[in-house]
Specification:
- With 83 residues, the protein is mostly helical.
- It contains five helices and no strands.
Length: 83
């Protein structure tokens, strides 16, 4: 990941899971991008919601109507879905 300055929340809201990208890999990429958003003030649950929005339709469907406290909890659920 090359340095090109601070990322804005729009980077996170526009992130999408790529074709053939595992959900856990997407979440890792999401976390790495989040770490470049220094002035972002979101609660952990809001971050998990944001990450969920970028996931593939198949995974999103399985996560529907579930709330997550943080990205770790979301990752556990995605791991269970993918295994």
């Amino acid at each position: 990941l090359q340095w090109d300055g601070e990322k804005k929340i729009s980077y996170l809201t526009n992130m999408r899971q790529r074709n053939n990208e595992l959900g856990l890999d997407f979440l890792q990429r999401f976390r790495e991008t989040r770490s470049l958003c220094y002035s972002l003030n979101l609660f952990d649950g809001q971050l998990a919601d944001l990450a969920t929005q970028g996931m593939s339709p198949a995974i999103k469907e399985k996560l529907a109507r579930q709330e997550f406290e943080d990205l770790g909890q979301l990752a556990q659920r995605v791991s269970a879905i993918e295994s």
